Amino acid sequence: MGDLNYCVVVFFLYNKNKISDKKGDQVKTQQKGLRKVDIGCKSITDNVFRLISNDCFLFTAGNLKKWNTMTAGWGEFGYLWNKYIVTGFVRPQRYTYRFIEKNKYFTFCFFEKKYEKALLFCGEHSGRDYDKAKKTGLTPVPTKLGNVYFKEACLVIECRKIYYQDLDPKKFLDRSIKALYRKHDYHRMYIGEIINCYMK
Q1: Which of 3, 9, 57, 75 is the most exposed place for a label (fewest CB within 10 A)?
Q2: Average model confidence (pLDDT) across the chain
Q3: Where are the domains of the chain?
Q4: Which pLDDT score, from 0 to 100, does residue 12 have?
């Protein structure tokens, strides 16, 4: 990534039924049915590769007055610059792009399998044309900072943007990646510091 030496080690794991009671890992507060856990997420014990690539998630920005969400299947969890971080990727033509650009924060929301159709709708339809909450039955609610997440989510990651960069096709070392960008609509990458982590 340009002059930035970049390495993200994926280590976050998730299991909604297991929370450690060790110091630093304990549940701290309540957020509308979700429990706040240590942002180190040392007690979360499921496979993050499954969470990102198989289950997908909603990438959301904005407040209750004006927000949008999109289904994402590409992302990263890791530790960078002495911070716990996630990385999200958004193509510039996506309606959610403008919300992420305008806001300092965003959320990643993960769901149980029964919400698969809702996530499918959010991935295939634009918030320009549809009220995604009404169409899917998902319930947008604010965090204490006013950022939107969904009441039905089983895991919510709330983040503060700390870095962005557009992907540069000249730096693709694997030529097969270019086939994913036939319209040359290269993603903008956002790195967010995890500031809150909630789970059921």
Answers
A1: 3
A2: 82
A3: 30-199
A4: 38
Tens digits of per-residue pLDDT, 126-160?
A: 989 889 999 999 999 999 999 999 999 988 999 99
Q: How far apart are CA 48 and CA 13, in angstroms?
A: 5
The pTM for the full model equals 0.80
Distance CA(44)–CA(13), nearest Å, equals: 5
- Would you list the DSSP string of the chain? -TT------------TT----STTTS---EETTEEEE-TT-TT--S-HHIIIIII-EEEEEEETTEEEEEEE--EEEEEETTEEEEEEEE-TTSHHHHHHHH-SEEEEEE--GGGHHHHHHHHHS-TTT--HHHHH---EEE-TTS-EEETT-SEEEEEEEEEEEE--GGG-SSGGGGGG-TT--PPEEEEEEEEEEEE-
Please give the pLDDT value at position 25: 39
**Distance (Å, rounded) from C-alpha 120 to C-alpha 117?**
5
